[in-house]
Write a structure and sequence with these properties.
The protein is of the alpha+beta class. The chain is built from four helices and nine strands, in the order ββαββββαβββαα. The chain has helices at 20-26, 74-86, 135-144, 149-164; strands at 4-8, 14-19, 31-38, 44-49, 60-61, 64-67, 93-100, 107-115, 127-133. A four-stranded mixed sheet has the order 6-3-8-7, with helices on both faces. The protein is globular and about 40 Å long. The N and C termini lie far apart (43 Å).
Length: 166
Amino acid sequence: MDELVERVDGRDRVLGVVSRRQAVREGWLHRVAVTVCRDEDGRILVHRRSEQLSRFPGLYEVAVGGAANAGESYEQAAARELAEELGIRALPRLLFTFTNRSGLSPHRLGVHEAVVPNAVAPDPDEVAWHGRLTEPELSSALPERHFTPDSRETLSRYLAFRSAHS
């Protein structure tokens, strides 16, 4: 069964509940929550998506996440996705939201941050590989590896946010 999501306007106000498939097909804004996962040393968790995923199979990502279900806050969706994809319980902190037009369709993207343990148990149906990179290593990897369009936009805005708030 297709996920139900909330269609939102450019100000993130709910317009109604629709299927995610319909939101993508029609180009309607809906909410997506991602979390940039850091370890205690500040390295960022990077992963490669499973080849069997329908969206961006085999591409790398700098954040863990997915669509927010109808009635779910950005934070709730981010925590659920961390549990589903990495097998961890963490309290992600919402940093900012923006309208992201890269990827499959436009969406409101809630970008979170969480410090996660070194021991994660990724779901092999979702994650084919994972590792941790410093910010300079990640900057070098971006042009060399195939990252999802969302990853580039998310990382750019995330690093700018951190710089402005440090």
